[in-house]
Structures are given as C-alpha cells and as structure tokens.
Amino acid sequence: MLRGYYTAASGMLAQQRRQEALSNNIANAQTPGYKQDQATLKAFPELLLQRMEEQNVPTSRNLSRAMPTTIGSINSGVYVQENIPDFSQGDLQETGISTDMALVNGNLPDENGSLFFTLQNGEGEERLSRNGNFTVDGDGFLVSNQGFYVLDQADNPIQTNNMEFNVTEEGTVQIDGQNIPLGVAYAADANSLIKEGENVFRMDEGAGPAVDARAAAGVTFAVQQGMLEGSNVDSLRSMTDMMEAYRSFETNQRVLKAYDSSMEKAVNEIGRVR
C-alpha cells in the first residue's frame, strides 16, 4: 500500500512540472524567437518480483533447493526526465524596423541542427539566440534586447556609428560602404544547448562550441531585415495539454485519497486492539 502512495505522488509531481513548462510556453507565446519546451516523462526502473520457495530433491538425504518463481514486474512511478526545447522554425512577422532581423532556416544537414545569432554577454562570453529583436545602444553598437552585443563573423561587436544600414539575405550588414558578415552559428545538436533564460542559450562544455554556419558543410540560411521570427508555441495545443495534465493530476490525487482512506481504516479499525 505504501508503494501506491509513492506511485500516485510521483504522478502528481510529474504533472505539476509538466504544467509549469506548459505555462511558461503560453506566457512566451508572443516572445520573438522563443522555442517551446517539451516535458519528457519517463518511468522509474521496473522491479522484477520473484517468489522464493523450496523444492525437495528426491535423494537419500532428502535435500532441498531454492526455486525462485517469477511473478512479474512492477512499476514504481513516473517523473519528468527533462524539458527539451523544440527548435522548429517559427512564423515570420513583419515589423518594418530596420534593426529587427529574422533568421530563416534553409538546408540543415543534421536532424537536431539549428541556427542562431551570436551574442556576447557582459562577461565577454559567446551566447546564442533566435531572437532578432535588436537595437542600437548609445555607443552605436548593435545589441540584443538583453543588452548583449551582436557579433559579426569574426566574433567582434558590430559598430553602426548610429548610421542607417541594410542587411542582405546572405546576412551581410552594409554600413557606410562596409560589408560586415553577421555572425550566424550552427549547432549540429541543438538538444545539447543549455537554456539560460531571456531566450538565450549556451553550448554544453562537453558538446564543444557551435561552428560558423557559413563554414558548415551543407548549411544554408537567409536573414530577413525588418522582420522577426515569432515563437513556435501552439497556444491551442498548449491549452489542451494543460487540461490533460490537470486531469491527470486530479486522477492521481483521487488515487492518493483512496490509499489514505484505506490506510486510515486499517490503522483505526482493523488494527484496533480490544
């Protein structure tokens, strides 16, 4: 009976964590470049039950030997293994603002591959993002909405000198007669990225750095100026999944109450000493 407590409780905790991920997705449904999280549920390792019994061996000494009989397996609950971002392309939204840019996937040779703008945070470390909602700071540098520098292909901040600029589909920033290739990184396994918040990712140390998308074999992309990539959150599907998670939570809650009622009866009635 105690195992039933833990199984039902683990189901409630798993659905609660799934609900949190879905709520975060819906809250960011209008965030440019946001990639929705998908909670993956996994069962705890199954236990194999066996009954130990003895069998007499027809010998002069009447020996016996252990004879385990397999009863079957039993599951001990479920948990959220991890939240995996979905890096599929979001819809493009026209803004007409020259500092806004949308990164459009072309050919990606790896199933889990994805493209990103390259940024530099306050500590000088490289970060990745799909959010092209850029602006120009007081010093004339192109920056993200977090205040991170937008990098060029040589990993240098892009200085606009507060001048108007154009961005070609190939990702070249044209400023006062200069052609500056915009930094675009390619991660062959985007699932190895670590989400830092505010729509920013970094590569896992064990996975190695992302590579220059222009140098990656078979990778093609386009950059659209004056447009933003919307989030890839399906609000209707997310609401449906939230209702499903809530119903599953309620079901496990009722099971837990049933176990609690049975335990109360066993302690207060069956186990009463008279």
TrEMBL record:
Its main location: other. Pfam families: Flg_bb_rod, Flg_bbr_C, LlgE_F_G_D1. Residues 224-268 form the Flagellar basal-body/hook protein C-terminal domain. Residues 112-174 form the Flagellar hook protein FlgE/F/G-like D1 domain. It is found in: Bacterial flagellum basal body. One of its GO terms (biological process) is bacterial-type flagellum-dependent swarming motility. GO terms for cellular component: bacterial-type flagellum basal body. Keywords: Bacterial flagellum, Cell projection, Cilium, Flagellum. Residues 6-35 form the Flagellar basal body rod protein N-terminal domain. The keyword Cell inner membrane does not apply. Belongs to the flagella basal body rod proteins family. PANTHER family: FLAGELLAR BASAL-BODY ROD PROTEIN FLGG, FLAGELLAR PROTEIN. NCBIfam families: FlgEFG_subfam. This is Flagellar basal-body rod protein FlgG. It comes from Sediminibacillus halophilus. The lineage of its organism: Bacteria, Bacillati, Bacillota, Bacilli, Bacillales.
